Amino acid sequence: MWNYTDKVMDHFLKPRNIGVIEDADAVGEVGNIVCGDAIKLYLKLSEDKKTIVKASFQTFGCASAIASASALTEILQGKTLLEAAALSNQDIAEFLGELPEAKMHCSVMGMEAFQAAMQDLQKKFPELELPAVAHEAQGEERVVCQCFNVSEAKIREVIRANNLTSVEQITHYSKAGGGCGECIPEIEEILADVLGKKSPARAATAGLKTNNLQKITLIQELFESVIRPGLQADGGDIELVDIDGDKVLVRLQGRCAACHSAEQTLRLWVEAKLHEKVSASIIVEEVR
Amino acid sequence: MNDDVIYVDNNATTCIAPEVLQAMQPFLTRYYGNPSSIYPFSGPAAEAMRQAREALAELIGADGSDEIIFTSGGSESNNAAILSALQTQIGRRKILSSVVEHPAVLNLCRSLQKRGYQVDYLSVDSQGRIDLDEAKALINEETAIVSVMAANNEIGNIYPIYELAELAHAKGALFHSDAVQSVGKVPLHLRDSQIDFLSISGHKLHAPKGIGALYRKRFVPFKPLIIGGHQENGLRAGTENVAAIAGLGEAARMAMRDMAGEGAELCRLRDRLESGLLSSCPDPQVNGDPSSRLPNTCNISFKYVEGEAILLRLYLAAKVCASSGSACTTGSLEPSHVLRAIGLDYKALHGSIRFSFSRYNTEADVDTILQALPPIIKDLRELSPFGRQ
């Protein structure tokens, strides 16, 4: 159910400052039609290029995206660039009273539109000395969430700017992890790192350099926690016989031993799990 | 019913019909006896269940009421049928389903994949149609069960379940259909079909939530999902929800009686809405297969605008309750899997609205929507950075 404050509804139904500023000094565009929301922000500055005299926007998105963009233009108008550069997405949320947590990414997108406009301004006026934007994502541009194209830097920034403590919150604020969910373990790691905690997920993530002893321990853990319970649920079982380099020797038991699709179980289930969690080079072999 | 709103979201759920409520009432008050008890006080409960079973069997064209197992609803029925097939079809570990199934089947299949079962999903074309040749190629001696919905909840497409059931049986596989959107809206003929299992949900046809049924063709092997008491011939344990079952029976009787005329009226309302919107809104696009759709369902996209914003405005303007396939309304940040499966352009994907009618909608409802919606689309288009020359 919709759960918007009166102020959000007011800005959704009567958005302020909509449309294009034809002679804008800077234009910032974020989001796209694929993701389901986008903001285009136009800024007109004073003669000395220090103060925002006019801001306007166009938005494709839900009620809170429209309200966030409208709020952003209201906040920006009359502010100096120095003042504006210190803003965060929380200022948009506070201006609107409150945004439902699942919609906080709309406020984040609003601030990103401003950051994009600042970059555009610098490009158009290279001689200007612009204030550093306080909450711009810095550093690692590697994309973590492929579904919504969210970088590691952005994830780190939303965690810091909003004091986030869970993956769910990170999804609400950045959309990261909200699609197929495959990147959730990685988001967990980033969160743990920002919070200065050791991540329990780290050891179990594929692709990390592990020594032989760690690899063997990990395989043993996977057998006990995932693989055996999975087969036991279908009346079967599996024994880990030996590990020789990348070769994992197993013996099928119970119903699995007599099952004519045992080969498939080994490839599609046991081997696939080990590829996912340990290493793509593992080969599972059945010992009879 | 509630006259405060224009409710056109009947594929999500329906109101309880007044006749249904009336049929339920005695079992919520006076006749509270356990239908399994032996004294005459429990007689009316047992009798109501017997009649409901018969009405439901008749509605879906079953051979007999012994083929009806009452359950808690569509999700339970889907789980019961598919999980049973995996136990009774010894040595077969493959499932064939489709990409447009309801999450009730789709997520069950995904969880089974994690447990080592192989699941193939039939693809759909740009109108949401499946290809029987693809099904034929994917069903083989390892297939335990084929599960394809009778009609799609989002775009309303009706699928060729009778033909699919024959293809399944040709390779020794069982066939199940999630028919919660079809039952009560379009006629079903299970008696002479090859369909083994079919899921029914009460709240989609004006009975309450939390009641449904599984049709299981006589003699088809079945392992119960819920084990315990002897209820439902030992096929589904748990003291029966007598009042809800009586309600479902009444809903089935009403559907049986009114389906033909009602279908034509729903079609008329739907077509009036569709043609009205097509001529009054910029860049509209109807989703689904116009030649084989449920009579009550209209799924239409408005390019360059977003569904949640449309719905909220539409509710504030005219108290219209409808739904959307946009990312902001699915609860998952991703737009509808059905609309993505038909390859709908992203420009149109987030601006999709589904209107689904029931017997309680009127022409006045349609006209209210036709009046309220076009200016909303126009407003939101003006806000949008996309779709300009």
Give a count of the beta strands of chain B, DSSP E runs of length 2 or more: 13
Ends apart, CA distance between termini of chain A: 57 Å
- What is the multimeric organization of the chains shown? heterodimer
Across the major sheet of chain B, the strand order is 2-8-7-6-5-3-4
Helix content of chain B: 40-55%
Strand pairing plus helix content of chain B: what structural class? alpha/beta
Major beta sheet, strand line-up of chain A:
1-2-3
Which structural class best describes the helix and strand composition of chain A?
A: alpha+beta
Spans where pLDDT lies below 50 across 5 or more residues of chain A: 201-207
SSE series of chain B:
EHHEHEHEHEHEEEHEEHEEHHHEH
Continuous helix count of chain A: 11
How are helices and strands ordered from N to C of chain A? HEEEHHHHEEHHHHEEHHE
Unreliable spans of chain B: none
Largest interface: A-B, 40 and 32 residues
Largest sheet of chain A, described in full? 3 strands, antiparallel
The helicity of chain A comes to 40-55%
Provide the gyration radius of chain B in Å: 22 Å
Structure, explained:
The complex is a heterodimer of chains A (288) and B (389). With 288 residues, chain A is α+β, with helices and mostly antiparallel strands. Chain A has helices spanning 6-13, 63-76, 81-85, 89-95, 104-124, 152-162, 167-174, 184-194, 212-232, 255-258, 262-277, and strands at 26-32, 37-45, 52-60, 143-145, 150-151, 236-244, 247-254, 283-286. In chain A, the strands form 3 sheets. Chain A has a 3-stranded antiparallel sheet. A 3-stranded mixed sheet of chain A has the order 6-7-8. A two-stranded antiparallel ribbon of chain A has the order 4-5. In chain A, a hairpin with a 4-residue loop joins strand 1 and strand 2. With 389 residues, chain B is α/β, with parallel strands linked by helices. Chain B has helices at residues 18-28, 43-59, 74-88, 103-114, 132-138, 161-170, 242-280, 307-318, 327-330, 337-341, 346-349, 363-383; strands spanning 6-7, 68-71, 94-98, 118-122, 143-147, 174-178, 197-201, 212-216, 284-287, 297-302, 320-321, 323-324, 352-356. In chain B, strand 5 (143-147), helix 6 (161-170) and strand 6 form a beta-alpha-beta unit. Chain B is globular, with a radius of gyration of 22 Å. The A-B interface holds A 2, 12-13, 15, 18-19, 29, 33-40, 58-63, 65-66, 147-148, 171, 175, 178-179, 230-231, 233-234, 259-261, 264-265, 268-269 and B 91, 93, 114-116, 118, 142, 304-309, 312-313, 316, 326-328, 332-335, 346-347, 349-350, 382-386.
